[in-house]
Amino acid sequence: MTAGFLPAGAQAEQRAERRAEAPVAAQRLTVDLAAPEGKVMLGANGALYGLGDDGVPSDAALAPLKITSVSQKPEGGAQHPNGDAVTVSKSFFRNGGGDVLVLMQDVYSKWPYEDLGISDYLGKVDKIARDIANAPNSGRFVYVPFNEPDQIWYQLGVADQATYEANRDRFLRDWKTVYQRIRAIDPDARIAGPNESSYHTRLLTDFLTFAKKENVLPEVTTWHELGPDSLRDFQGHYDNYRAIEKNLGITPRTVNIDEYANRRDLSVPGQLAQWVSMFERNKVFANQAYWDAAGNLSGNVVQTNIPNGGWWFFRWYAGMTGQSVKVTPPSPNTVDTLQGLASVDPARGQAQALIGGASGDADVAVRNVDPKVFGTSVTATVAEAAWSGYEGRHAAPRVLSRTKLTVASDGSVTVPLRGMKQMSAYRIVLTPAGSGTPAAASVPFSAPYEAENARITGGQVYTQGTVSNANGYATSGTKDVGSLNTASSKVDFTVSVPSTGMYDLSILYGNQNGTPSTQLLSVDGGAATTVGYPSTENWTYRAKKDLTVDLTAGTHTLTLAKGTGEVTLDRIDLTAHTTPSTAYEATLADISGSVSYDYRDSSGTGTGGLVLGSGAKAVFDVYAPRDGYFTVTSRASAAVQLSLHGETVTAAPGQALKLYLVAGNNRVTASGGATLRSLDVAGSGSTPGTLVYEGAQAQLAGGAQLVESATASAGTYIGWLGNSAASTATFSVDAPRAGRYALVVSYGHNDRRDNGHAYNTDIMSRTADITVGGATQKVTFKNTWSWGDFWTLGVPVTLKQGGNTLTISNASAWAPNIDRVELAPIRG
Predict the structure, then answer these.
(1) pLDDT digits (tens, 9 = 90+) for 214-238
(2) For a tag site, which of 162, 319, 403, 816 has the least CB within 10 Å?
(3) Are 573 and 545 in contact (CB under 8 A)?
């Protein structure tokens, strides 16, 4: 099995290198299906300030991840402009979220928190406790009274023992006072602590001894793991903590590592696999750190609704069921090495493994494959979630191979992984193999080219995101090319393709200008075309630009030269263009109700069929690269009902339906008495049948006005909208038929409130009331990084046939700037 391809020239070079060097043996990672470690907990999928507002991220991006905990600020806290715990809990709980940890000291505005004395803090504690006690689902909030007390207010990490003891005693007194104050207002409160910035045996021993004696033990023990060495040291920390509990006679507490990972780890599937595997193995909860902006699940959601590679890794993690099982990696507790987690679910007839953290080749040896569950042969399906940047969209992970494997006499099978990428993660799914042959995976030619290895004119190579600079941003190959800011600046990539045709060109970039920028693309010195780059948070916050080029077979020079503004280049990828098509396996979908699994036929996806009983449902997460119509085909034994954006349609077996998908993730629910094998989605997002209304076509009132803009679709957008009940924009819509429509709003805004943090970008959202007929819904619009960038957000609405009015307003605050609106029937 091959997990990646090289261009023909590079393959020849690699063969020559291998003849000159001793072959490198494949690493070996072992999965033991007969060594259960407990029920899959999904504890490591949380995020600090992962939620920005109600609706940021979107429900469709949030629900599939089954997030078990998030950390947010108290309602009205001054530390950041958004992320209030009670406010964001609405979307969190309606999408199946677990606990909300409330960082109580984030009520303060400064970082580190201003120390105004315990009396000042207690007044704030009272309000926070009342807010939480009176909130819906109050039992699902967890109070975190102190944040990093080893550094902030108390300086508990000092080396001098006498100073430490004086500081410790002050902290313990304050812990008891605040703990009892919370309990007086909210007797059923769950409280977490001590919440150190790193693990300290000395403090935890003293803290737990005191807390037990004074009857102020936390229900949840928290600390942070925020260095690359945590990948080496966490296991020792955890074991030491449990030993302290045992020695003190304390009932084991729930553990939440409520901040983990560095910037170089976030959004990177191969890095996340290392962190998540150690937390799941130890059955602890863990929340990714907040190094940048709120509302993107710590760098795993693009814009509001679009997955990146990190999102897909966590989607895979959320799909693991049954028992987690022992995984033995080549180098346990070692930084940046091959690691993994695995599960087995006999009821579903599935074993899964998520693996990442290393490049090269590996053999995954799965032991004790139970013949009562899997029979004598299995189908092994391997897929890859690649790194696509923090702001780079990632399609549904590509299946690299589907193979039938015979279970050896000792109950083992070995799945080879070849050509792994260090920043990628890989999922292996084992299911019983029936008759028939799985469809061969279609993996088009693809080749990466690092910018730092290209010919650079008027630019500079920078190093980012290494172990020694762990809070540097993730970068492909740890290097990029910046300072491309002179008239002659350019990067020439020498590329080679095997055949003549169209190729997808993906550019990993950063845009530091605070406005859309451009470069000029030419092939072999020919006529240049303009490449537009939307804004990014900063020049190292990676995004991805996708376009196509026509190339003849052989070697070419692709040049990216300075246009307007300044763009940093990281890597380009050339992939043979194919019509996008994905088969979403039914047996791997989220389920509810009475279902069973039928693996008698291994054809198609190779993963068998999902038998939907009466009232049963299967939910698929379907990716769309853009807003538009796609063909959706049900591979089922009988007709099923598909529900999407509030519309339900009947899907006959094998009959393609034309359905409107919004950019990013779309949750499609299937129901009906049938055996469903897959939901096949194809297309690039066609727009015929879409009703388009530019901003200039709206009737404006109350100060709303058209503003000229070079980046708006028709040269103008609606600005100064809202902040008054009289300020509205109304579109007259002529609907061809009654029913459910997707309203796609193209909008932009760049509201911010900088609290002076060294590393947080305090972006703010805007809201608007959208009224169609007599129905009004409040919609949240995330910051678009600049005033010149326009994103789209899909909102389902219901229209009557013929004339409709669509009004956008906000009586109490500014609405976003509106470029245009589009409406399309869900079923085309």
Answers:
(1) 999 999 999 999 999 999 999 999 9
(2) 162
(3) no
